[in-house]
Amino acid sequence: MHRTRISIKGVGAIVALAAVAALTGCFGNPVEQLVEDAAENQAQEVIESIAEGSGVDLEVGGELPADFPAEVPLIDAPISVATAQETDSIRMWALGMTPDDVPAAMQEARQMLLDAGYSEDMWSETGMLQGQFANGTYSVGIMAMEDTVAYNVILQR
Q: Which domain of life is it from (predicted)?
């Protein structure tokens, strides 16, 4: 999987993230691989042209941001996307992790946060499986999405 470290702005981040994620699959056919490589390079150029100075750090393909808080327990699953953002008023990290069993991983994430001393501010199994937790330092939201467990971590200032 291709890893890119870039800066991107606002709504463009969502569009760019979706484009990169859609273009990072593996193909067995060599012709399809050539097409994929060209499309991925083009997507990277588009993202980089949107970039410069926004304060968003995007990792595609598997690594936590270097300053991700160790106090936030994570499930054991591959990281598909990781972002970090800091502004004058907020420090935030967002992760997409791809476990084999999303509902079981959500329950595991919930229990890990509770065991680490986080309070459960909200848990919902109606509609979308999601939860919100806090420990006085961090607010952690987790959400199940198709094949992904998404984490949203905010430093409470």
A: Bacteria
Helices (H) and strands (E) in the chain, counts: 3, 8
**Phi, psi (rounded to 5 degrees) for 136:** 95, -25
Say whether 75 sits in a helix, a strand or coil: coil
C-alpha 16/C-alpha 9 separation (Å) is 10
For strands 79-86 and 91-97, give the pairing: antiparallel
Question: If 0-12 CB within 10 Å is exposed, 13-18 middle and 19+ buried, where does residue 7 land?
Answer: middle
Per-residue pLDDT of the chain (157 residues; tens, 9 = 90+): 444 333 333 334 343 444 444 443 433 444 555 555 555 544 444 444 444 455 555 555 678 998 999 999 999 999 999 999 988 888 999 999 999 999 999 999 999 999 999 999 999 999 899 999 999 999 999 999 999 999 999 998 7
Tokens of 82: 């990781």
Q: What is the pTM of this model?
A: 0.66
Identify which of 157, 119, 122, 126 has the alpha carbon closest to the alpha carbon of residue 142: 122
